[in-house]
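Running low. Got one?
___
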Amino acid sequence: MKKVAIDVDNPDKTDSDETDIDHHKLSEPLGTTDLALNYYRLAPGEALPGGLHAHGDQEEVFVVIEGKATFETYVPHDPNHETGEITVEAGETIRFAPSEFQSGKNDSESELMILALGAPRDSEDVRFPLTCPDCDHDETRLETDAGEPTLVCPDCGAERAPKGCPDCDHDELRVALEEGDEPAVRCPDCGSEFENPPLGS
């Protein structure tokens, strides 16, 4: 047995100096071997890290402790699943199976406190609903083995380095659903949207 306190005044880190997100990684302090456990506090307008993504090798569960979370969901290959937004309120939970695309945000006017659980603990298959420019496969896999992020097509193996926003030079872009519930790449800084992400070779 192991017990730890979540010190809300001293998060492990903030995901970015420009955001109002507190992130507490709890897997290491608790010594979990098969479960990833993260606690987030998001101010109004903030989003969970990662943008619209899926874990091919991990199921995720989110428990809303306080506030209200809005999740974008995208399931391109299953006509029985609805794409769009779903609201999860305090005391409610939501589960995403492996390979289900999702992103979470705080669209409310009050703070959101949320617990994120993933099993197995270490996901090595993170995917984005981005079309491969070489073979038109409809998703790419994120690899960080060499230290720099690389988008790899699981079908043809093409590798591309993601670039920052061409409009404002912000170094991080996110995948989100645009009008019509189709994925697009969006700059969180200036709001520019791109049908295809800016990629290097």
